Amino acid sequence: MTSHGYGTMNKNIVLAQGLTQVVKSNKMKDEVQPLLPGNPEPVNDTYERPDLRTSPENVILHLPGPMGPGEPEVKEQRQAGDDSYNPLLNRNLEHPTSNLDTMIHLLKGNIGTGILAMPDAFRNAGLVVGTVGTLIMGIICTHCMHVLVKCAHELCIRTEVPALGFADVVETSFSTGPLVLRRHSRVVRYVVNTFLCITQLGFCCVYFVFVAANLQEVVAHYFFRMDMRLYLTALLLPMILLNLVKNLKYLMPVSLFASVLTVIGLGITFYYMLQNLPSTSSVDAFASWSRLPLYFGTAIYAFEGIGVVLPLENNMKTPQDFGGWNGVLNTGMVIVAALYTSVGFFGYLKYGDLVKLGSITLNLPPGEILAQSVRVMMALAIFLSYGLQFYVPVGILWPFIKPRLQTEQAQKVGEYTLRVVLVIITFGLAAAIPNLGAVISLVGAVSSSTLALIFPPFIEIITFWDKGLGKYNWVLWKDIFIMIFGLLGFGFGTYASIMNIVAPEK
Predict the structure, then answer these.
(1) Is 327 within 8 Å of 312 (Cβ atoms)?
(2) Does the pLDDT at position 12 exceed 50?
(3) Residue 479: CB partners within 8 Å, gap ≥ 6?
(4) Interatomic CA distance for residues 267 and 377, integer angstroms
(5) Are the C-beta atoms of residues 121 and 295 closer than 8 Å to each other?
(6) Is the pLDDT of residue 1 over 50?
């Protein structure tokens, strides 16, 4: 509601109820003053979110909200139980996305190199445990996505903000939560952004190794075998040049081409996996307990798409269609879980313990041109997708560096330097750990479990602590169970992945 609307309401209250109600009305008016101190203008009721129709799927992992870096935290909040403000009716989007657009972005945001590593994940779990575990993990991750959206809506109502990003939700939940936590709101925002950076830079390391591993197999079959690090070095300059492109508009055709290559590559991979399948008795139904943490890390890495959820919902034309039993989120995640389970099940059943670490494409017959074309297509698709993953950490880190550079020329040079340095860092990490399967498991255990399984239930507890957590506090116990599950996966998965890096299996 605008300040003009409040003024009119005050006049009516004066005429109807006298001076006492005027005081109450003025208090209400004060409560909706600008959320950012020092801004003389009233809150803009038509806060515009960035348009995601032209944004690639992974760039939307982090979108600065109304509380971006350097802005003061929200101090005021609405009265508990006052839900008169509807954030869905206050979003002014120039190009809102349709349900189909949102579904495509959701699928692209969840399907990447992780799906090709699922047969390796099943090898570490066994056919039965891998199948059941992947479906259960998909249900838990999807539930956590719903939790994040629900908390975002509640916090938007309290702060009268149309939309919030992941880091915004965490910060706002703390700043409007229990008094003992409010002073830590800014710190927890930095923690979330740190994990987002670690996750995305980890993805970039995986992309480096994935491209190099597939190129190595192709060249080794037709010409000669070289060390993996030589391929990584050869990729360094092209990666740097690709990531000097700052305008997302120029990356969109690249993203579309990469998506087409990925779909074709997956189709051919299924063609090979489904031929001459052996009996299910030929593989282990249950793997040893010591290998389950590696399965967890790889599986949760594959399901890491929670960062795209809020930006997608924020930019929908009909955001009410996002949730619900047959909404966009559930439909998309059912497709994702079915694909992950299918690739893992049939890939492990087809190749058994001979399945290659990190990517099923490495198991395709080297003597067939069609199989080699899959390796080339997937390597090219992942190479072209590196820039989209890379855009996220740059978007998080650059706002902290930019104010320290005074001139426009210095800022221009500084941004390019940041991009080059980050590419070199991911190259260095990839060269130090050229074990694709171990890197995927480590990134999943450290970052993906934190963002997908630990933060959402924790946010729900803080957000609704004063409104109740269900009969017998069942919401509290449910959230505690999910957090314990995520913490166990984080601890054991990280340990097993590091040990696999130090002493890789032969």
Answers:
(1) no
(2) no
(3) 457, 458, 460, 461
(4) 12
(5) yes
(6) no
